[in-house]
Design goal:
This protein is mainly α. It has helices at residues 3-26, 36-56, 59-116.
Length: 123
C-alpha cells in the first residue's frame, strides 16, 4: 500500500539531498575540521538524514547519518575539550585576580591601621 509512494518519497529526498552533498563536497570540506560552520552544516545533514531514515524508512539515509556522525565525532570532541580548557583558564585567571585583590586589600588595611595608629586585627 505504501510501497510505491515511499519509494517515490525516498527518491525525492535523495534528489533534494544532491545539492546539499555538492555544497559539502565542494565548499564545506575546504574548511578545517573543527570549524564551527563546518560542524553546524554537517550536523544539519545528520539531522536531515536521520529524519529521512525515520520518516521514509530509508536505510541508506540512516547509514549516511551514522557514517557522518562517526566522521565528525573527533572534531566535535576536540572542540568541546578546547572550550572546557578555555573556560578553565578563565576560571584560573579569575581566581588569581581575586587573590591579588585580597592581597592589595590586606596591605591597604595594614597601612591604614598603621596610619591611624591602630594595632592590626588578630586573625
Amino acid at each position: 500500500m505504501f510501497g510505491i509512494p515511499m519509494a517515490v518519497a525516498r527518491f525525492n529526498y535523495r534528489l533534494a539531498r544532491l545539492p546539499l552533498q555538492l555544497i559539502e563536497d565542494v565548499g564545506v570540506t575546504r574548511l578545517r575540521e573543527g570549524a564551527a560552520i563546518r560542524l553546524a552544516y554537517e550536523r544539519m545533514l545528520i539531522y536531515c538524514d536521520r529524519a529521512a531514515a525515520y520518516v521514509l524508512h530509508d536505510g541508506s539515509a540512516a547509514m549516511r547519518a551514522r557514517d557522518l556522525r562517526a566522521q565528525t565525532n573527533p572534531a566535535r570532541i576536540a572542540l568541546v575539550l578546547e572550550q572546557r580548557q578555555a573556560e578553565q583558564q578563565e576560571q584560573d585567571k579569575d581566581v588569581a585576580e581575586v587573590h591579588l585583590l585580597r592581597g592589595h586589600r590586606a596591605k591597604f588595611v595594614h597601612r591604614h591601621q598603621a596610619y591611624l595608629g591602630e594595632s592590626p586585627p588578630s586573625p
